[in-house]
């Protein structure tokens, strides 16, 4: 089966091509994440924004998963040469890649098809492949927390951060294990096409639309113990009042907790401090307003809870690396393309 692109109609924008590399021992859940997220992203009129194909390092044929079944992959390694983005999900059979930090000849030959400038993405232990190929040298990267120490020992040239869900280093992005792959793929959709498109994909997938990459991988109490008070009511209360000043004591008061108890419980449940979470929610609110309205910057800043346009600018620059004006221009242009 050929890996050539499907012809497109004249005047139709070209889809961004995502090629998923299926390795022996791959985990079916993680292998399916890119198709589920990128494959559901749509622009105006329902136009698909991504084309997602799966390939292996061998000619088309079966690839054994870590479950009791194989998947039939219709593309060989040549498909990697056609990719705008390559995603490498986790595998439990990486052999010398995991044990010695070196690529097998077949994997090295497959990666040799990559074009310069291709965006590279790993999910969980897929990061070992990027590391063994040298793509992570001198960069920050993450992987599943249970492998982080081994990952650091095997690849000392990498700055390994086991305390985050994913790391966006521009053209190379790495994620922690399992569901963090969903967070990373949604982040990429958000980066490429804005919050509205990513939120629509998240709704269709029935997952939270945004978990910040800096959130902790391992949350002590993701599911409350029976009859144990949680902070969910305070979060819902805050989301309805992002445009207002919100103090920590106000949040704690919603749960009838002391500030100290609330702060500890909040971090255990959410993975970040209440202040960090509030800032994340306000950044998301600002992004949505910038994408979907023509409101003046001062108005957007007030509605998002930043108070002033200058404060909003500082927070967006810190979180996104661009100013509100650039963000609006980028994603309003994308929405009308």
Architecture overview:
With 337 residues, the protein is an alpha/beta fold. It contains 14 helices and ten strands. The chain has helices at 28-38, 96-99, 105-111, 127-132, 148-154, 180-193, 195-205, 232-239, 248-254, 259-270, 274-292, 297-304, 309-320, 324-336; strands at residues 16-21, 50-55, 61-64, 70-73, 85-88, 119-123, 140-141, 159-160, 166-168, 172-175. Strands 2-1-5-6-10-9 form a six-stranded mixed β-sheet. The chain has a two-stranded antiparallel sheet with strand order 3-4. Strands 7-8 form a two-stranded parallel ribbon. Strand 7 (140-141), helix 5 (148-154) and strand 8 (159-160) form a beta-alpha-beta unit. Helix 6 runs antiparallel to helix 7 (195-205). The longest helix has 19 residues, at 274-292. It is globular, with a radius of gyration of 21 Å. Mean pLDDT is 89; it is low at 218-227.
Which features would summarize this protein structure in a list?
about 325 residues, alpha/beta, six-stranded mixed beta sheet, two-stranded antiparallel sheet, 14 helices, 10 strands, about 10% strand
């Amino acid at each position: 089966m050929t890996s050539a692109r499907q012809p497109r109609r004249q005047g139709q924008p070209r889809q961004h091509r995502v090629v998923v590399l299926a390795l022996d021992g791959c985990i079916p859940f993680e292998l399916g994440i890119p198709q589920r997220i990128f494959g559901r992203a749509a622009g105006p009129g329902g136009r698909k924004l991504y084309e997602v194909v799966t390939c292996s390092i061998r000619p088309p044929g079966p690839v054994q998963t870590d479950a009791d079944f194989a998947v039939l992959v219709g593309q060989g390694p040549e498909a990697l040469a056609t990719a705008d983005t390559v995603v490498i999900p986790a595998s439990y059979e990486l052999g010398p890649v995991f044990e010695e930090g070196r690529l097998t000849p077949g994997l090295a030959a497959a990666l040799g098809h990559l074009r310069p400038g291709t965006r590279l993405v790993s999910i969980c232990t897929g990061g070992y492949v990027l590391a063994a190929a040298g793509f992570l040298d001198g960069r920050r990267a993450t992987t599943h927390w249970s492998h982080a120490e081994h990952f650091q020992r095997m690849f000392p040239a990498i700055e390994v951060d086991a305390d985050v869900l994913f790391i966006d280093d521009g053209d190379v992005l790495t994620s922690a294990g399992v569901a963090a792959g969903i967070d990373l793929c949604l982040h990429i959709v958000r980066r490429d096409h804005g919050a509205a498109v990513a939120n629509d994909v998240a709704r269709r997938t029935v997952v939270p639309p945004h978990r910040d990459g800096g959130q902790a991988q391992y949350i002590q109490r993701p599911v409350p113990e029976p009859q144990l008070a949680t902070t969910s009511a305070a979060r819902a209360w805050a989301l309805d009042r992002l445009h207002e000043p919100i103090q920590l004591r106000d949040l704690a008061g919603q749960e009838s907790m002391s500030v100290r108890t609330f702060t500890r419980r909040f971090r255990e449940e959410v993975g970040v401090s209440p202040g960090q979470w509030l800032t994340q929610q306000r950044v998301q609110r600002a992004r949505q307003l910038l994408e979907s309205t023509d409101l003046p910057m001062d108005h957007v800043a007030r509605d998002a809870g930043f108070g002033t346009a200058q404060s909003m600018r500082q927070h967006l620059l810190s979180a996104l690396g661009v100013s509100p004006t650039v963000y609006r221009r980028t994603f309003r242009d994308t929405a009308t393309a």
